């Protein structure tokens, strides 16, 4: 059988790097879209750089996306690129809309014009549920986004469905709940905590400053979630799926568990809060119902909350030790 070809936008990000590894393990030829930066940011993919082909492009630039689709001639396209940090979406709402909303249309246009038979995955988000209308949240739960990022993702979600219905593209939207890993950006709360705890443990810091400790999230492991993306594109029919663990925890519980991983029990003395990290509108409570993914894709998470926290703290302790050598 001919080797399958996949194009990943956002390959330098957390999910892009895990997905590229996963597709290489399935013998795909992997192409990744990267935007120009003044210094290279290939930290997450440097171990596989010689096995993938990077193509220049930006979600703001239609021609570059069209060229990337043309050059890679993919069987599957994973649109993971986005301005993905919710907090930044209030300070840069227009840019977030350009990247995270209209960027999806630009990618879909490239597919429609150049490679309409390619299967397309859109990285939708549980942030679309925002102020939740029911719990747990499933594919049929109404959206009520609470950030410019969430609003942009709702647009991306519906334009994907619209291109599927208008042009008969195999275009699917994965509504993924929060997923984390040692490769998570340092600005997201889980990695901020694991990195902060590791520093405290090693005597390199004496506090972590956070925002809302009461927010609850359904946190899974990113490595598990990229497999679900791939499974969605292997189905006979294009459909949307929720991907989640079905369990949620508060930010406070994450903190407690992270300190526990390095045997620190009196964690409260190290944690402060600041208004600086409180959002204009908060998503208080997310918990996903992934029954459809479990039944149709035979997908299930393999890493528990405790294992995830321990994995992230250990990785940060190891990283900080290595960097201080
Ligand atoms: P991430 O680590 O922030 O990665 C985002 C990627 O998008 C990076 O490779 C980034 O490139 C790229 N990008 C940003 N703007 C771009 C532009 N204008 N043109 C081209 N590339 C651009 O995000 P992630 O956690 O891997 O998430 C992947 C996708 O899933 C995102 O769409 C996110 O919104 C969505 N999602 C994530 C989660 C989660 O919990 N992780 C849950 C639901 C949905 P640079 O390296 O150059 O910045
Ligand atoms: N980042 C951050 N920093 N968040 C904090 C902090 C802090 O110091 N203190 C408390 N929080 C709370 C936030 O208010 C939010 O309720 C929760 O921790 C999680 O924040 P993030 O880790 O930034 O993630 P997110 O849930 O807003 O967004 C992530 O998940 C979405 C899926 O639901 C991102 O990966 C999005 O791209 C993704 O779509």
TrEMBL record:
It catalyses: GDP-alpha-D-mannose = GDP-4-dehydro-alpha-D-rhamnose + H2O. Residues 7-312 form the NAD(P)-binding domain. It comes from the Bacteria. It is an enzyme of class 4 (lyase). One of its GO terms (molecular function) is NADP+ binding. The keyword NADP applies. Keywords: Lyase, NADP. Pfam families: GDP_Man_Dehyd (PF16363). GO terms for biological process: 'de novo' GDP-L-fucose biosynthetic process. CDD domains: GDP_MD_SDR_e. Its EC number is 4.2.1.47. Its cofactor is NADP(+). PANTHER family: GDP-MANNOSE 4,6 DEHYDRATASE (PTHR43715:SF1), GDP-MANNOSE 4,6-DEHYDRATASE (PTHR43715). Catalyzes the conversion of GDP-D-mannose to GDP-4-dehydro-6-deoxy-D-mannose. Belongs to the NAD(P)-dependent epimerase/dehydratase family. GDP-mannose 4,6-dehydratase subfamily. This is GDP-mannose 4,6-dehydratase. The gene is gmd.
